[in-house]
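Sharing a chain and its predicted structure for anyone who wants a worked example. Both blocks are below, sequence first, tokens second.
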Amino acid sequence: VCSYYLCLVTIQNSHIKPNPNDIMSIILFSMPEIKDYKSIDIDALLKLQVHFAASTKDIAIMNEEKGKEFINAYNSIYKGIPEGYVFQGYDITLYHLSLLKKYGKNGILNHLNEGNQDELYQIQFNYQQASQWSGFENKHVYIIKCSDYKYKEAK
């Protein structure tokens, strides 16, 4: 296991030349901020098969057909590209209002994980309660990978 700083140094100084006869491959798990560093060579990220955890798939959604449809619909209405929290706001609102409609304000807490997640773009919900005296937390995590010069959800 390496520290975040050490991983960055390793990537920046990487001179990996894959050998087709090698059966070992490297997958580097990193912090999501790695995608924001302009000084890291994208080819090094690809060679190391960089993966990172994220609570939303904001960076990957732009490469999915479903995300492109949303962007086109948004653009036709608002004459621009969705920024910031547009996808999250849509997902959170759609998910929780559908639960509210189905179970009412008094039943929603008993059914937090029973909403339809098929129509959501960026967030999936997996609510858990740490104790009976605490609120609920969304524990769903995406694993995002760098592949073919794009960030994608790792399946």
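Comments welcome. Strands lie at 29-30, 51-54, 127-129, 136-138, 142-147, 150-153.
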